[in-house]
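I hope you will forgive my troubling you with a question about protein structure. I set the record out below, with my sincere thanks for your time.
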Amino acid sequence: MTIEWWHWAVLGFALIVAELAVPAFVLLWFGVASLIVAGVLWLLPATPLTAQILLLVVLSGALIALWFRVVKPGMHKTRLGQADAGVVGQVGVLIADVAPFTRGSVRFQRPILGSDVWECLSDEEIRSGERVKVLSVEGSLVKIGRA
């Protein structure tokens, strides 16, 4: 069986659509690489299968490396202490008891700054299972009170 340019194009579009189900921006780059291979094969139809696969591997690796080294590092520059305006007021459920001199844990319905569970402090004793609200951010901990 001979692999045609449109086979690579279909694979590329399928991988890009699959990225919608796996939002990690990894399948996207394999899809883009497949589309580039489709373009090369359309321009040079006599390209052997080994060269096509090698081109796919090299392009995929280069695109992923570019993503992780150039684009993505800037996405996690925000630290918890710098983003307290977006965190204060969030409501979660306490999953580990907290007391004035004891740390607890709180789980939020949706992740806040990349995590849905945070260690917390409180000025009062609160039992696990209660709804709590973030009052402030203290370093890498959130200070909570009853919601």
Notes: The two ends are 65 Å apart (CA to CA). The chain has two domains: 5-76, 80-146.
